[in-house]
Amino acid sequence: MNYMMPAQASAQLLSLIVLGAIARWYVVPWLNIRARADALIALLWVHVFRYVALQVFSAQRDGFPISDGGAMEIVLGDVGGAILAFITIALLRHRVRLAIPLAWLLAAETVYDTVANIRGGVREHLMGAAGGVTWLVLSFFVPMVVVSGVLLIWQLYSRRREALGSAGGRDLRSHEAPALRAS
Questions:
Q1: Is residue 100 included in any domain, yes or no?
Q2: Pair 35, 165: CB distance under 8 Å
Q3: E strand or H helix at 59, and its extent?
Q4: Which of these, 11, 28, 30, 40, lies nearest to 141 by C-alpha position?
Q5: Whether pLDDT at 178 is above 80
Q6: For residue 54, how many C-alpha atoms fall within 13 Å in the half-sphere facing its CB?
Q7: In terms of residue numbers, what domain contains 34?
Q8: Which residues, including other chains, have CB under 8 Å from residue 92's CB and lie 6 or more apart?
Q9: Is the pTM of this model over 0.90?
């Protein structure tokens, strides 16, 4: 019996559950005490590393049965998302309002890219075909991008009326070390 398909699916599901718990217990409270721009920047950094998708060419050479078109679709979507995330971070660091529409564009692109990659994987019968680094990327990094994307959309929507430098009325200083508060 081939255990690769259930192993990969289980690893992806378990990663989504674990990352979801980490997000709920630790990341969400941390984001809530940050300025809007800083919270978005933290979530966008995960997307900057989506260029790891370039690894699909190496995987293809080593036997991963993806078509040239499927590989190119993955690479274009993920490298484009990585570039967009980095530009958005740079703009947010300078509190440029254009960063918000770009963050929404990245969120939409990520949803589209994820759905397109799932469809392509089903069409090309790739579930369970990954091994080595590709298996790790699909089992750990892709769920991290998904969870980060959900948190990004939540932050963009729930804090849509806040200024970029605002922490939603929360006192940012109350969470600093006592020595820093005294200054």
A1: yes
A2: yes
A3: helix 55-61
A4: 11
A5: no
A6: 8
A7: 23-55+63-165
A8: 37, 40, 41, 44, 99, 103, 164
A9: no
